[in-house]
Records
---
Amino acid sequence: MTQPSAFKRLAGQEFFGPFLALLIISLFVALTTPSFLDPQNFRNIALQVSILSIVAIGSTIVIITGGIDLSPGSMIAFLTMCLAVFIKNQGMDLGPAIALTLLIGCALGIGNGILVAYVGIPAFIVTLAGLSAFKGLALTLNGGTPAFSLSEQLGQVFYGTFLGLPLPFFYVIGSYLLFMVIMEHTRLGREIYAVGGNENAARLSGINVARVRLIAFSFAGACAAFGAVLLAARLNSGSPNYGANIELQAIAAAVVGGASLAGGRGRVVSSLIGSLIIVVVQNGLNLNAVTTSMQSLTIGLIILIAVGLDVWRARLGRGLARLTGQRTA
Amino acid sequence: MTTPLWELVNICKAFPGVRANDGISIRLNAGEIHALLGENGCGKSTLIKILSGVHQPDNGEIRLNGVPLTLGSPIDARTKGVATVFQEFSLAPTLSVAENIFLGRYPRRGPFVDWARMQAEAERILASLEIRIDPRRLVGSLSVAEQQLVEIAKAISVEATLLILDEPTTALGAHEILVLHNLLRRMKSRGVAVLYISHRLDEVVELVDTATILKDGRVASTAEATRLDIPSIVTAMIGTSVDEHYPKEQNATNEVLIEVEGLWSAAGARGASFSVQRGEVFGLGGVIGSGRTEIARAVFGADKITGGRVRVAGRKLRLRSPRDAIAAGIALVPENRKFDGLFFNFNGGPNITSAAIGSIRRLFLLNKSEEARITTNYIRDLEISPAAATKFVNLLSGGNQQKIVIARWLFAQSQVLILDEPTQGIDIGAKIAVYRLINQLTARGCAVILISSDHAELIAMSDRIGIVRGGAVVETRPASQITHAHLVQASASAATAA
């Protein structure tokens, strides 16, 4: 047997399809819209994708367990308001205020997780309730109005640089490395995939299924909280309207990146590629002055195409397996 | 010889890893009740599914009045005159009896459903079958026996030349069975061919005109050859070459490893007691539904335990979940490996290590090269297909899949292995490999609890056998003192008693 070439090995990876799609889409946008290649535009894309891609990590992990999380958007609205109130109304220092905001995010995620894993309410319902409830919580703070000009230094959290590179670059790389290691190389990651793949078999293998689900939701809370802090820093403000619809984009990023809503399949790194696809498409539409409504429509179509391709690929795979007799290997 | 009404000629059908039907020919004459008999896994279900259009044969012919025809789908089979009553009910519980009988072909007046006619027709059909059920009642509110009768009424409400009944009496009481048998005799006198499948040999010899017996996907006794008395049927079902492929080793010691005392579970163990020694294979015999699987799940902590004790090596266990059982060295190879055993999103390696994943860690990280090494070893030792190392397990044959589930518990170093139907749906080579694994386990001092509906296998591989009825072990004997006929009879009497 010969060693497969580097290209073949790359092509065998689950994220290769989404990666190819990203290249094709970028090429198309670049050819049709010259301003796409402008360095300033690249910077915009990078800043935009940083927040979405971090939130998408949490959504992807929940999807891998076979669940779904509709709550990050409203959670982000609430958490930007928390941060604003801590800094502006309570006069807290930046560090403790951010730390507390992150903790609240984890706690909300754990709350979702308890309701799903231990009370037994379906994830869709729990997080749909969260979508509404967290928005409501956000409106109870600061009289329900946005809080602007929070702090001179807060912007630095987002706009600062390190070694000449913008900080969000490091946040994204750091988060992705951390969660890739957790998902691919730890017992917990293996158990998350096992629960998503076959819950019965996981339980009968001695895996604490409820605990695994709880942890997945707490990760989602932590990722949403990190996104909230970055969003508040970027805009130096908090608002009950921030984060709207980001949960759908994050789910789209996961699915476009190849995660299966049935659970058990998907890679953390794919959700970065998925996020890039969504942001590049949006950016291309923006540059061509396409209206927001058309943009929503386009994102919807992308999700349909991505899932459609997945279904089609699975069918094709089965057909090929039959033809080559792999099934009875 | 006259041309039969329906005829199956040399039907072959293979599934991955198993030849379910291997050249089966059967002649079904008009006005004749024909029994199709055989043990679980002999190919009866596959044959019925081919006749009712669910499966297509790989080879062979179906003939109606001597003319070959294709039954391309269940609807196609139905329109060509095959009515089938399956074991699993196909009724919609939220609809009325009349609606269920006419499901998919409601009588109409113009664009609207003609409810009055549907009602009247349903009443007529039920009356002709002497079934006293109000057609307006919801099916969900009927007893299981009544539902079974509605199912039959539905099947024969359309003109049929062939009526197939798969275990129609499992849920019926004595009176309902009588009603059903009378009904079948009337169908027979109308010139319908009836194919009747049942495990209850007493009622079979009472009812049918002729019987074909299947074994391992082939005809073991043709209709012409079968004598309609229970002992000869049992002999034909068992076959002549029973124990040649059972490489049983005697490894039982005197040291008791697991003791189960008066175990009750919410799911259906009802005061089960037994003990198993190191190196011993303890078989659990009994019919499907007798509670064998429920006892196994309770011992494994998978169902909530409501009473009783389990001791392993003298230590009393607190079994709140499978985790507790695994920690105590108990393992369960579940009956349904697809549903309860395998992770189809993993290749062989993670499937093998899933119950002891903690033992391949280096600090916080999984030692994947160690996992690959372990996988390679099990693939070699258990003769698993090498594809298991790199391919998702859904691409493997049933035998390879089963070996992977067993390897999981070898790797977890379990001491007590509960094997629930471990050879179901796997080919003979893989079966023998599983038997050898059982020998290896007992030689190592493990205790094995074997559940099997394959009586020959159960008798040959067990040291002692406990007969299970109603969730408890009612009788325990050395396997050498139990015959196949004894098990069949015990099962039959259990069914009659139920």
Note: Confidence is low (pLDDT under 50) at residues 323-329 of chain A.
---
Amino acid sequence: MGNTETQGYSKEERVKMAKRTLRVMVAKPGLDGHDRGARVLARCFRDAGFEVIYTGCHQTPEQIAAAAVQEDVDLVGLSCLSGAHRYLFPAVVTALKERKAEDICVIGGGIIPEQDFKMLYDSGIKEIFTPGATLDGIVEWVRKNVMVRE
Amino acid sequence: MYFVKEVLEQSSETRKKWEDEVKRAVAKQADQKPEAHWSTVSSLPIKRLYTPEDIKDLDFANDLSAPGQFPFTRGNQATGYRGKYWTFRMFSGMGSAKTTNERWHMLLREGQTGLSTAFDYPTLMGYDTDSPKARGECGKCGVAIDTLDDFLQLVDGIPMDQVTTSMTINPPATVLWAMYCAAAEIKGIPLSKIGGTIQNDMLKEFIAQKTFMCPPEPSVKLVSDTVEFGTKYVPRWNTISISGYHIREAGSTAAQELAFTLRDGMEYVEDVLRRKQMDVDEFAPRLSFFFNAHIDFFEEIAKFRAARRIWARAMRDRYKAKDPRSWWMRFHTQTAGCSLTAQQPYNNVIRTATEALSAVLGGTQSLHTNSLDEVLCLPSDHAVQIALRTQQIIAEETGVANTIDPLAGSYFVESLTNEMERQAWEYIHKIDEMGGMVAAIEKGYPQMEIADAAYKYQRQIDAGEKIMIGINKYLTTEEVPIPLVEIDDEVEKQQIASLASVRRRRDGKAVKSALDNLKNACKKGENVMPFCIEAVKNMASVQEICDIYREAYGEYRDPGLF
């Protein structure tokens, strides 16, 4: 691991990080079929060295939460371009809570107007990436903010 | 040979001189970017200069000819745009049927000449608004339609015998088309008088757009049913709009868009010929196409010209069609949503105008121009008006519609057209070898080709090898805010209430019997269309009908390839 990737972490955390690679899930909640961003990101996460699970389109929030728990992931990245994020993103956070997996970090991306950011952050979404975000920028955010779960 | 020997000799001589001069100039001051980076948005290398040698093998009669003549490279119509401009057809749908109907009337008042319907996701996927799977989606990216009751509101006051309507609908295409037919009948308009298009191209759903319901095989069977029904009873209807638009939006190159779309078209032709007792000339004239107009101006023009030529050759030589109308590739075009940026959104007007111009120079029959705000939300009235005006300015001010196929004979454009055709046939033959498009889709072949291209492009953007203004060059820190259209969550509540009301009012027994008849038709492999029309007339909902298809044919799940 390069210097920038371990910056800001305690020794203990770095040891933990080295135990296993980060497991990330890219998920498409709802009925939206715009999967270009999700698939590009899944491939980018794989190239970055993460273990990647991609759900494919048309998953309910409950299906996503169940799969995230079963696959023991550290991060769920949600992608929605249909405008239904206001319902779907918080519903995934709730479904994870119901499965006592609220420590799984949830981020979102897609066509998300800025006016919805606050509502999404308040619901437990940790970060939102919108058109124009770079792949490396997203990977960097994940490396800085997502820990391998206990 | 396209040129006489003397011209080629002179060209060769002058080209050599020019090359020497370029070498001298480049030695003094290098090009702005390396050789490999002078390429199209699809990464197709482009030469600094094209000369007669680049098209010396062009066969005038077989490759170019005249407009209205085989192979239609220069256009289907002998009269070009003088007879009729392309149809100004803005894709629209938002919230409830009533809201969308108001937008339609506004667009017609503003000079739009055809309608085009965007449905919301529950409708697109064959679910009713009250389905748990539909939560949060109602009216968000199109109009919500559950029953004929909604549909009648949608077409209220629309002269269905005069204006043609396109509907972007795929798995439930039979249902929404049945509603259109039923609505026409209720208004006293015979089916022979209505005109329009259903997208109804299921193959590209598996490849790119990802609104699917049943597996590929039965999905294509339903498509063939509509082709047969349309041929017999709704002769002015285009029963498939074979679409490259979504393939391109998913990240394909121009050549992949062209190749996969045309091979999809061939798959439908083959399926109808195999399944139905029909001659190719009976149905082929009603097959229509739909392409993307992306930002690379000349690549797109070449793509459109090549598309007409390939289809004409395929229909005449591969499928032995004899009617020249079967050889025509008629297509709608939409400017590229994926070329627009959320950053500095007013720049999108310029992108859209350039793309629209390429579609017109490529000879499109119908055009949608994206609104500047569509990268952020559904378009506002004002943004839509600018987009429509863009087409009207191109048509009536710029003079580009004065003459047909003005770029014909350009060394560059002809050479690029040939290259597009060559690359497309290469893909088509590869898919033939795989056993056709359904087989290729099952192998994940087109899906992965597109995924590779999309990933490569994103990496090029991130590395600054391809430029998107506002994304990786000429960034501004202060954005000028634009008003955003928002669909109120209240729409969902109202839609659920009105669906419940239809369910209470309708004759339950009649619905059940109509649905049972449809179920039987599915079992027996009969054409579903007449039964579908009967069901929607009895107020069966979109999902009630689609559930029958799901039960009869099974459900397809996204394999999640990346």
Note: The longest strand of chain A covers residues 75-80.
---
Amino acid sequence: MSKKDKSARNSKIKRIVGAVGMPECAVSSELFIQLYSNKAVSIEGNCSVLNYSDEKIAINTAGNILKVCGSDLNIEEFGNGCLEITGCIVSVSFC
Amino acid sequence: MWLITLWRYIFSYVEFTAEKGFFERFLNLCARENIKIHSPKIENGVLYGKMSVRDYRNILPIVRRSHTPLKIKSKHGLRFAVKKHKNRSGMLVGTAVFFVLIFTLSGRVWNVNILGDPKLPRTEIMSLLNSSGVFEGCSKSDLLSDDSKRIRDILLNNIDSLSWASINLDGCFADVECRMKADVPKAQDYTICNIIAQKGGRILEVKAYRGTPCVKIGDAVQSGQLLVSGAIDMTNGGTLFCAANAEIYAEVDEQLSTFVPFEQVSSLPSNTGIKRTVLTAFGFNLPLFFGSIDYDCKVEKNVLIPEFDGIRLPFKSTTAIFYPLQKVSRTIDENSARKLAVEQLTKLQKSQFGDNVINCSEPEFLTTEKGVRAVCKYTCKENIAKSEKILINP
């Protein structure tokens, strides 16, 4: 499937989802990030770990790199398109 | 969280470390291959993590690709706990027996208790329950609501003295609650009658509840004599007939006799008994002996029911000792025969007259070739009133 066809298909899906009143994120293949206060962050979608240390975790997402900075950072769960990080989170940034 | 911990324990997991290699690549490859690593952590250049045993077996290609050799730090879970005791087959059998017992025993009735009035015909109720399928060891599902209603109806239809019955399950115990019918007072007979004497004697006490008394204290009466008349004379000259009712106590002469033969035959138990034991579990009897005893015996029975924390367990051991009876004949002298006769007379007196004896004479003995006959005369206080219908035209 070419890039043009793919974008056309995506826009079609978005129109249908919009017509039935569903949130776009329900069918989107993009990342879904949830932040629980500054204690945990849950990332759903295709991603891989680039760097993992106590103070910084870098995650490769589609086209972007997500950096989670803080202290005592831990990967609690990783797999099935789900990544959960706990610890004291100071910042979540894309670069 | 404890559920996840239990789940992981049941399926077992290993704790591993990796000291060199590309840890991030290792994590990414694991995630792609759907291998779950619990709490991966990199500390001082060492990767720590936990994964299930099944996943650890498939980790080798990922280890090679990420150049991250793993080292097992510790093993946890049921699989390893069982493996540790694999040479102890008794433990495995014991565990299996434990679970089988738990599942089997909890579905059975352990005890059948009959609750209610102490005068209840318990033996009859228990035999009816047994024939209806309620016994120690029957399945609890057999006592569901429909069945318990059916059994309750059987009890009420077959035992007249019951007014209400109910079967309730309390854990492994079947409680059969029963109530007796209340005693209905006997309807009084109002047929017109007189009170006559059923025995001759001297009147001691007159309690005339209805009717006209015809005797007074100290009078001597004969059998069949009128004591209380059912005819009451009115002041206006008329006569009213009623059902006379009275209690008339009189001194009555009675006589008792007994015969004691010189040749006495008695059955005596032998000194040595035969011991027989039967184990009962859930209504099934397991005799621990062979053969049967057909001759007359004196039996001493001992039932041992184990209890735990005040709860009767569904097992019991019944031990019976059978002492064979031997017929022994002996000849007694006249004095012994007289003594025996007096003892028998005393027993007869207690059973027939109770405490109503006012006076008794010395026993008279008549000795024959075969034995001794003893006769004793008594004076007793008795209610001699007896009703007799008055035959009149309506």
Note: The mean pLDDT of chain B is 87.
---
Amino acid sequence: MLLIYCPYCEEERSELEFRNGGDAHIARPTNMAEISDEEFEAYFFLRDNPKGVIFERWRHVHGCGRFFNAARDTISDRFLTTYKAGEPKPDLNEKPKTGAEVETYEALEGAAQ
Amino acid sequence: MADQAIATRNVPLAGRRGGSPAAILTPADPASRIALRAGAEAVSALSAALGVTLPVRPKTSASTGRRHALWLGPDEWLVIDEDNADLMAAAASSGVVHSAVDVSHRNTAVIVSGPGAEVAINSGCPQDLSLAIFPVGACSRTIFGKAEIVLFRTAEDTFRVECWRSFSPFVFGLLSEGAEDAAY
């Protein structure tokens, strides 16, 4: 089970409490009545579906109910970081602020023989 | 002339008993409740009007007597009064901008108590309920099996499980299964 850090609850919670909300940082055009059908299609329907890091909206629907943004690796399903809605994209090269380090078997016991 | 039909309100879970020696399940008495939404600038006035300090830290609650304010989200609280006081009138008397919805009859609650209460609830709830992580007074909206619940720890071995009344047979049933498992 995945644990996702909610930036509002300030705690890691089970994925069962969350819903995915699609791509993050999609800016709605301010001149909606003037844009062409192609431009509207690009804004409304077309997504990159990248293999690798994706910035997504998530909602803590069975918790605080808030939307927030997350950077997730679509290959490993690992959450790199989460941050509150409205905040700019974080620098993923910095150390993420998502809770304590995970205690892996390798870290505690050394590499498997 | 035909007799007038008189509607009586059924208490959900009325008469139900369940659980095990490790975790006793008791349907809670009817209480009044409001779902409260308000901005940060209204918190102090609402706290004064309700007579209970609205908590602003995640997963915390505040209680005055038998009235409890549970933090659900950054601007959202569940206020419960076990003496059925008129919380809507109390909130309205604050005079500040807020949204209050009376959910007294939407919600019902099950009291889970006993040394196996944590295990019984964890049978359907993914949260860490150990005392260090979920201390007395902690509260959280979370999920229990397929139903959304609000969990409130009132004592080291006692939880109040708030759920919607239409989900209450499911919640009570799953809690009963968990309570029986907790006895082994």
Note: The mean pLDDT of chain A is 87.
